[in-house]
Amino acid sequence: MNPRASRLRSALFAVVVLLVVAVVLMVAFGIKTELGHPAAAPVISTPEPSPTPTPGPQVYQVRFSATGDNLIHDGIYKQARNRAQDGGYDFDYAYENVKDFYSQFDLNWINQETLLTDACEPSGYPCFATPTDIFDSLYDVGWRAFNVSTNHSYDKGALGISSSMEFWNSTSDDVAWSGFYDLSSYDNYTYQTVNGIKFGYLSYTYGTNGIPTPSDTQYGVIYTDQLDIIQQQVAAVRPNCDVLIVSCHWGTEGSHTIHPSQTQLAQQLADWGADLIIGTHPHMIQDCQWLTAQDGRQAFVAYSLGNFLNFQASADNLIGGVLDITIQKTVYPDGSQTIELLNPQIHGAISHYDGGYRDGRVYMFSDYTQELAQSHGIRSSYPSFSLEYIQQVLEANVSPEFLSQNQQ
Hints:
With about 400 residues, the chain is α/β, with parallel strands linked by helices. The chain has a single domain, classed as Metallo-dependent phosphatases (Purple Acid Phosphatase, chain A, domain 2), CATH 3.60.21. It contains ten helices and 15 strands. A seven-stranded mixed sheet has the order 4-3-2-1-13-14-15. Strand 2 (about 105-110), helix 5 and strand 3 (about 145) form a beta-alpha-beta unit. It is globular, with a radius of gyration of 36 Å.
């Protein structure tokens, strides 16, 4: 054999042996993938089960407004009749400037000072009857809770009571009203649920302008001096609602001063179980106060919200207030709950009419202008009426902690 060929075969044999050895070593010590990671058998693992989350508290909120005396003088409903196209009454104009303001709230309450009835002829002072067409405008603005217990509740006798009750009972299911009670049992109570919070309402008045309870009526008002009945009602309603709102038609008419009878009854109501006490009747704005009840709860009272829409002839009767307060319910996993009243504020409201009591309408003070104030019909008797005058009245009668920043 050629020695050169023999050496070539020996070299090839050596190369083959080396390749075989290399392959064996690669298999023994792991072959790397193209991505540079060692090839390995997949590992299957079972994930640990997630722990069951601990339930937290549930929080419910209602931003609530309360508005003072909606006092419908004859000039107001006559203007509404002139604006109507169908022979009825169109009150939209009177409230259109406050519609945006009330749209901020989850629940709006108002004191309907005068009877709503179509069974009696419309009339103004001293014995009022207001066409029920006004309700459409009030509902359109956003009011869903109404007080009807006032010193004018008996202005039209038994017919006024029965026809007004019939009307209120015919309104929408989302409307709550209170103020007329079955005088044999006193147990026809009013409840309303909004955003998961259940409200109970009670309403009382100091009197009815000397008009006694009609002999032929089953229903009527409860007076603020009937303390045994009031306490009985509060005790009955309190367990069935989250928040108890009591409206009181009380105090001295035409006065910014809070009468001792108001503070005394407010404290009693808080001690018995009321959370929020709304005062009406003086036709002028009065201050607010936090109250500590016997059980340690914090209750709140607005002693008088003053007038809303009206045609009275005194400058201070045209300056009212709207209570703005947030009510919060917290429900804990063990079933217990707390109620908090948060950030109460008073927003000024101005009842405006032009000269000769024309074009009556309402504005929020934050939207009122000096030009409007200068054109107010009240200036013929009170030439000092102005934005500055309104500001002074609000600041003099509402504590700074309760007066909206827009009014200071």
